[in-house]
Specification:
Radius of gyration: 29 Å
Number of domains: 2
Helix content: 55-70%
Number of strands: 7
Distance between the termini: 19 Å
Strand order of the largest sheet: 3-4-5-7-6
CATH architecture of the largest domain: Up-down Bundle
CATH class of the largest domain: Mainly Alpha
Strand content: 5-15%
Largest sheet: 5 strands, mixed
Order of helices and strands: HEHHHHHHEHHHEHEEHEE
Oligomer: single chain
CATH topology of the largest domain: Rhopdopsin 7-helix transmembrane proteins
């Protein structure tokens, strides 16, 4: 673990400890001093707070949905669905009745509670899911969650005579206390999950989600110990929830808009620009050297042949670099760029390459450029060293893992006695850059197979 990463986690951990101490002490103070358990009936303020939190939840769902559209991670799928259900439940069962001028009925009040439980069930599960999904998964998951919320509302309406009322009395119904306690457990699970994920991956968004979940945890605990006054009531739990949504908005905007998109694309463009310079420099230097040799009277036929070879290599490297840059910048589809590269590579007929890309595989911007270069480096090794006539490139999924494999029918080598060349070292380094696992299998006379398993 890098020193800066360890320092980030320690800073977050100490912040969590301090926050738990302060909020825990505050909760204990209010629980032990009943005269401090204040709740104020302010319908207008309650409606404003509910509207602000629903709007904030919708924005967070939108940001998570945008990142899912780019990277396809199931974490964002569950976050988007969870916050969307939370916003929809508040808008439908809390805000809409208040705007209509009447307090929510018993079924609507309990539907709001169920909606919040469903939403936080999805959010709490999010840090523990792995892998990626296709674009249809978001619509299917949101539809299933909305259907579950609608069915819950119909079920609660049919059981309205059995449900306890959430009214203006001072005693909170036991069923409501249990529901709020269950939500507190879900909040605690989210704190643990996002904290664990931040420790493992050091993604900035996980830190903000863990902090916000901590505030939501103590908001739920305050709700448990503060009798609920139904619509229009405002308590300490509402203030903590509002603060949590503020943290979530700040963290989501910072982590998703800036760190995930802008920084990743900028870094990849800079990296490809460096590779254009480094790759072309050696060939252009060779062209210049052979041209100088011609001027100095070197054998014309031999020198011209080498000059043409260097110029062709420089031209091909320029084409490859342009394809890589367009892929990294998002101006050319990844599969189209890779297909064109292989067409260039196999134009002379010395090597036949079979390319297969699973259309369901989603690659993040930083993965696209590295996978492109891994394939380029791997096939270059096949041409230069393997004496192969055929190679296979596969980009697909296996047991929910995304992988990139390159196989050839060449001579192979004994890995125990032959040191890895610079090409294989470059592939290993590129795989590490995108948190991928690298394996190489080769035996004399049986070809070589390399595989990179991408991060989950």
């Amino acid at each position: 673990m890098r020193q800066d990463g360890r320092d980030d986690f320690q800073a977050w951990l100490w912040g969590e400890i301090l926050l738990f101490g302060l909020l825990g002490s505050s909760l204990a103070l209010f629980v032990t001093n009943h005269e401090l358990q204040t709740k104020v009936s302010l319908p207008q303020l309650g409606l404003v707070l509910s509207t602000v939190m629903a709007f904030a939840g919708a924005i967070i769902a939108l940001l998570a949905g945008i990142r899912f559209a780019v990277e396809g991670r199931r974490l964002d799928l569950f976050l988007c669905t969870g916050f969307l259900i939370s916003a929809a439940a508040s808008a439908t069962f809390v805000i809409a009745p208040a705007v209509a001028g009447h307090p929510p009925h018993r079924a609507e009040a309990w539907s709001a509670v169920v909606g919040r439980l469903l939403a936080w069930s999805l959010i709490a599960v999010a840090p523990f899911v792995r892998g990626r999904s296709g674009p249809r998964a978001l619509a299917n998951t949101v539809s299933a969650a909305c259907l579950a919320l609608a069915l819950s509302w119909f079920a609660l309406r049919s059981s309205i005579n059995v449900l306890p009322a959430i009214g203006t009395h001072n005693d909170t119904p036991g069923l409501l206390t249990g529901s709020l306690a269950a939500q507190a457990l879900l909040n605690l699970l989210a704190v643990v999950g996002f904290g664990k994920r931040f420790y493992e991956r050091r993604e900035d968004l996980d830190r903000w989600l863990a902090l916000a979940s901590t505030l939501m945890l103590f908001a739920s605990l305050h709700y448990v110990f503060t009798p609920v006054l139904a619509a229009g009531s405002v308590s300490r739990g509402d203030a903590l929830r509002l603060l949590a949504y503020g943290l979530l908005l700040a963290g989501a905007w910072r982590a998703i808009s800036f760190a995930e998109f802008g920084r990743a694309v900028a870094e990849e463009r800079a990296r490809v620009a460096r590779e254009i310079h480094d790759g072309l420099a050696q060939y252009l230097f060779a062209v210049s050297t052979h041209a100088t040799m011609l001027q100095q009277g070197a054998p014309q036929q031999e020198t011209l042949a080498k000059l043409k070879e260097a110029a062709d290599a420089a031209q091909q490297e320029a084409r490859f670099a342009i394809l890589a840059l367009s892929t990294a910048a998002g101006s050319a589809p990844f599969d189209a760029a890779l297909t064109r590269y292989i067409e260039f590579l196999t134009a002379d007929g010395q090597l036949e390459v079979d390319l297969e890309i699973d259309p369901e595989v989603r690659l993040a911007p930083d993965e696209q450029i590295e996978v492109f270069r891994i394939v380029q480096e791997g096939l270059a090794n096949v041409r230069k060293h393997a004496n192969a006539t055929r190679a296979e490139v596969r980009i697909g999924t296996r047991f929910y893992e995304r992988f990139v494999s390159i196989r050839d029918n060449g001579e192979g080598f004994d890995g125990d006695s032959t040191a890895a060349g610079q090409g294989l070292k470059n592939i290993r380094a590129r795989a590490k850059t995108i948190e991928g696992g690298f394996t190489l299998t080769s035996r004399p006379g049986r070809g070589t197979a390399l595989e990179v398993v991408l991060r989950t």
